[in-house]
Write a structure and sequence with these properties.
With 241 residues, the chain is an alpha/beta fold. It has a single domain, classed as Rossmann fold, CATH 3.40.50. The chain is 42% helix and 16% strand. The chain contains nine helices and seven strands, in the order βαββαβααβααβαααβ. Strands 3-2-1-4-5-6-7 form a seven-stranded parallel beta sheet, with helices on both faces. Helix 3 runs parallel beside helix 6. The longest helix is centred in the middle third of the chain and has 21 residues. It is globular. InterPro entries: NAD(P)-bd_dom_sf, SDR_fam. Keywords: Oxidoreductase. Belongs to the short-chain dehydrogenases/reductases (SDR) family.
Amino acid sequence: MAEPQALVTGGASGIGAATCAALLADGWMVTSLDLRPSPLTGVRSVIADVTDEAGLRAAVASAGPLRALVCSAGISGSSAGDGPVEAADAAAFDAVLAVNLRGAFLAAGAAWAALTAQPGAAIVTVSSVLGLTGGGGPFRSHAYVAAKGGLVSLTKALAAAGAASGLRANCVAPGLVRTPLARRVSEDPALAEWVAAKQPLLGDLLEPDDVGALIAFLCGPAARAVTGQTIAVDAGWQLDG
């Protein structure tokens, strides 16, 4: 039997790269779609932007008969000038949603025909615990929170639309992960201490592999009866309410 094909947006670093590695280990053929090439041997790289609908469609067409789509591409709110609603900047809001929410919507649309043609296909989106809790503490990037919360609802809609074709759609909501997007946590001792308290199971940031392993599971046949779910990988973030 031919190896199943997966496309991972944002696959060149962080959670996306960890997902590519986990899928490779499970026997998938993996294509990374990112602005940079994948550092992993065995991963095919497509240089494209998730905000470019035509580029997404070309990437999907070149990836072969897809069995899985992982929507991992994202930017931090702070990198786009995002902030609290009282200091709202429409351009920053639009920039964050364009990548973190609209990008997943466009990727799913580009891959839909290919995925619904494959038995047991799956979509996995990457939200955030901040999209479930509304943020709080030092995290006041409201566009980021809105985009990550929107992914939860988008995933449910995709699951409902795809069920009759056997297409599953699920969402993962990580806590704070040791990725380039979380660099400021690593560089600020007070912030790192706050995050450690919020994630008492580990007392530290999560590692990308903690999330990539779950995503690979959700893409595979062992999760064939799981759809429309948002699964938090947050090391206990939500336990204190």
